[in-house]
Structure formats: structure tokens, C-alpha cells
From TrEMBL:
Residues 103-183 form the Core-binding (CB) domain. This is Tyrosine-type recombinase/integrase. The keyword Methyltransferase does not apply. Keywords: DNA integration, DNA recombination, DNA-binding. Residues 204-408 form the Tyr recombinase domain. Belongs to the 'phage' integrase family. The keyword Membrane does not apply. PROSITE patterns: CB (PS51900), TYR_RECOMBINASE (PS51898). One of its GO terms (biological process) is DNA integration.
Length: 411
């Protein structure tokens, strides 16, 4: 008996072997079948030469409903373009049989890398290098020999080293994603990494600057800028003595480099580091005083508009006048987008005497200032680009006067 519902973790759990099949309401042809053993397998059904055929996507223990649905969409798209996905899967199995070994490193280099490049060439090499560096001890292992115990041992070692749970979870999920693709392509029957559970941790940490800390940070930026100006003056004096062309003077410019403007922009817009570094001048409307975070660079994959307050406007306007021909707002070298600010940032934090304060905390600072100024949480959510209110609720405790006002309404 087939049931038409969206395939989710909840609907799969509620499905009985007697009901047997779930037909997804979101992607036509995407099905989940539960067997008497309790095993759930994802399939995608389509027509080939007029006949209905199915393509096994994989086990529910290896793939989440969302991952399986994405694969179903992909396969249906390939079928629509004329590809014989059944034949390709069969060929992949035969290729595996012909190879006595298909170890993890070969898989990453020969198979997975090409797949990632096709999806997102900008991040493909980063993902491959991340997997290789974190799981060096697994590179020589055959794919079907990588076990949950291997990953559990690695994870326990990282925990002992004090690595952040979110970082560990990201790496484990990246490995799971790679092996799930190997299952989809018929290179292995299944993997056991679904047994490696996500580390639960408190991600509600909110670190923002007090007025005194903010003053110290701004003072350390000012001191740094003055030191750079002094060094430039000294260098030009030496060049003048040697009869050499002086470097451009930094005495009459607002900013000595990108460090001050990117920090001030972060403090006053709440943009993530990656969003700031990918920001282009075409994303900024000085006439209307706002910037747009493009969907392609936003973590949520949704665009959002952030108004510019006076500080952000003046900073970006002055910085633009200094770099009228650049494409990117914050550049490294010849108009290449900035990729890191770690070195100067750590020096500034040390000089300012800030404890446990990361660059990302400038985003928390922005949100915290809004909440403490009485801005409602939904507006804060929209400005930060959170997909739902759960992430924004971490700032709710900063507005106790609003809770008190709410209670007093019935007093």
C-alpha cells in the first residue's frame, strides 16, 4: 500500500512494513520502501523506452531524506537529458570489480574530485584537501573497509586535543557525504558511518564587546594605523636619500589598508567573514544606503539586504574613493578577493587585551547591540540572514526589559 507524503525522518519512522511505500509529494518518482526487516531503501522511478524502471539510491541508514531527494532530482535530470543512469551504475560496479582495490585516496582523486568540481569548482579542492589532511590514516584503506570505529577513534582524539565540536562534526559529515556518494555510484554497497552520531554541544555562545572593550579595540586599530604611517614616512625618507621614487604617502588617506574598514564594516553590518571577503562594489548602493548579500555567497543561499548606518556608510564610501577601480571591496594584491585576516586580527586582539574574542564575534556584537537597543528578534534574524528564529533566540536574554514589560501587561 503506497502512501503519498513528503519523505522526512518523521514520516519514515511512522511508516510500517505493511504500508511498505512512501511516494514523495515533493519529487515525483522519489520513493522510500520499508521491508519486513525494518530496512528502508530509497528509489527513484522513471520511464525508460516506455517501461517503468527503478534506480536504487541507497539505504536510509546512509542517506538522509534530503540527501536522497537531491540524488533523485539529479538522476531524474540526467534521465531527462537522455542519460542511461542504469547502465552507468552497472558500468561503475563493473569498474569496481575490475579494480582489486579502490582505496580512499584514489576515490577522492579520480571520482569525488570531479564530482565536486562540477558542483562548485571554487570549493572542490578545499574539500578534497580537508578530507586528505584530516583522514591521512584512512587514505590507503579500501572504501568498504572504512568503519564507524575508525572515525570514532579519530573523533575521540580530536576531542582530547580540544577541537571545537562544530569543527569535528563538520569534518565527520564531510566524510559521510563522500562515502554516501560512493554508495550512490555503486562503488560500495553501504557504509557504517551513520552510527557515528553528531557531538551535541551548546552553540548558543554569545560574545560581544563591552563599551570599554570596544574602546580598546578601536584604540589598538588607531595605534596600528599610526605605526604603519610612521614606517611609511621613515621608508620614504630613506628612499629620498638614495634618490629612489617614494612609496605613496599614507599621511592624507583615511585608511592605511583593508584591516580597519573590514573590521568596522563587520561591526556595523553583522556580515559573516566569507560574505565580507566576497563582497563586490556592485553589491553596495550608496544612493540608497544599503548593501546586498548575494545568494551565492550567503550561508543560507538566500540573498538579503542590510541597510548601512552612518558608520558603515562613511567607512565604505571613503574606502571606495581610495579604490575606485577594484571589483571586490576587500582585496589582496591585484584586485583578488581577500581570503584571510587572521594574522592582523590576532595582533589587534592581543594589543587590545580581548579574551576569547574571535572575528566572528563581531557578528554577535552587531546582533547584541541591536537587541539591547530594543530591536525585535525577527528583524535581527532578517539582518543576520538566519533561516529561522532558533539561532536568533540566543540573543533574547540581552533584552530583559522587554520580558519585564510583557509580564507587566497583565499585572
Amino acid at each position: 500500500m503506497a502512501i503519498k507524503k513528503k519523505i522526512t525522518s518523521a514520516t519514515l519512522k511512522a511508516l510500517t512494513p505493511e504500508e511498505r511505500r512512501l511516494n514523495d509529494t515533493e519529487v515525483s518518482g522519489f520513493h522510500a520502501i520499508k521491508f519486513e526487516s525494518g530496512k528502508v531503501v530509497y528509489y527513484v522511478y522513471f520511464r525508460l523506452n516506455g517501461k517503468q524502471v527503478n534506480y536504487k539510491i541507497g539505504l536510509a541508514t546512509d542517506l538522509t531524506p534530503a540527501q536522497a531527494r537531491d540524488i533523485a532530482k539529479q538522476k531524474l535530470g540526467e534521465v531527462a537529458s537522455g542519460k542511461n543512469v542504469q547502465e552507468e551504475k552497472k558500468k561503475a560496479r563493473e569498474d569496481t570489480k575490475r579494480r582489486k582495490f579502490l582505496n580512499f585516496e584514489v576515490f577522492l582523486d579520480k571520482k569525488y574530485s570531479a564530482y565536486l568540481i562540477a558542483r562548485n569548482p571554487k570549493t572542490a579542492s578545499k574539500t578534497i584537501n580537508h578530507l586528505k589532511s584530516r583522514f591521512k590514516h584512512l587514505l590507503s584503506k579500501d572504501l568498504d573497509q572504512i568503519t564507524a570505529w575508525d572515525v570514532e577513534k579519530w573523533r575521540n582524539e580530536r576531542v582530547k586535543l580540544g577541537r571545537a565540536p562544530s569543527t569535528i562534526n563538520y569534518t565527520v559529515n564531510t566524510l559521510k557525504g563522500a562515502l554516501s556518494r560512493a554508495v550512490e555510484w555503486g562503488l560500495i554497497e553501504s557504509h557504517t558511518l551513520s552510527k557515528v552520531k553528531t557531538i551535541k554541544h551548546d552553540n548558543t555562545r554569545v560574545r560581544y564587546l563591552t563599551q570599554e572593550e570596544q574602546s580598546r579595540l578601536l584604540a589598538s586599530i588607531y595605534t596600528r594605523d599610526q605605526l604603519i604611517r610612521e614606517k611609511r614616512r621613515s621608508a620614504n625618507q630613506h628612499r629620498e636619500v638614495r634618490g629612489e621614487e617614494p612609496y605613496p604617502s599614507l599621511d592624507n588617506v583615511r585608511f592605511v589598508d583593508y584591516v580597519e574598514p573590514i573590521i568596522l564594516t563587520a561591526m556595523n553590518t553583522g556580515l559573516r567573514r566569507g560574505e565580507l571577503m566576497a563582497l563586490k562594489w556592485t553589491d553596495i548602493s550608496f544612493d540608497n544606503r544599503y548593501l546586498t548579500v548575494r545568494a551565492t555567497i550567503a550561508k543560507s543561499k538566500k540573498s538579503r539586504v542590510v541597510p548601512l548606518n552612518d558608520t558603515a556608510y562613511q567607512v565604505l564610501f571613503s574606502w571606495r574613493k581610495m579604490h575606485p577601480k577594484n571589483e571586490y571591496v576587500f582585496v589582496s594584491g591585484q584586485d583578488k578577493p581577500l581570503t584571510d585576516i587572521k594574522k592582523p586580527w590576532l595582533k589587534l586582539v592581543e594589543k587590545a587585551g580581548l579574551v576569547n574574542f574571535n572575528f566572528h564575534d563581531l557578528r554577535h556584537h552587531f546582533a547584541s547591540q541591536l537587541v539591547m537597543a530594543g530591536v525585535d528578534l525577527n528583524t535581527v534574524r532578517e539582518l543576520l540572514g538566519h533561516s529561522d528564529l532558533k539561532m536568533t533566540l540566543r540573543y533574547a536574554h540581552l533584552a530583559p526589559e522587554h520580558k519585564a514589560a510583557a509580564v507587566n501587561l497583565i499585572g
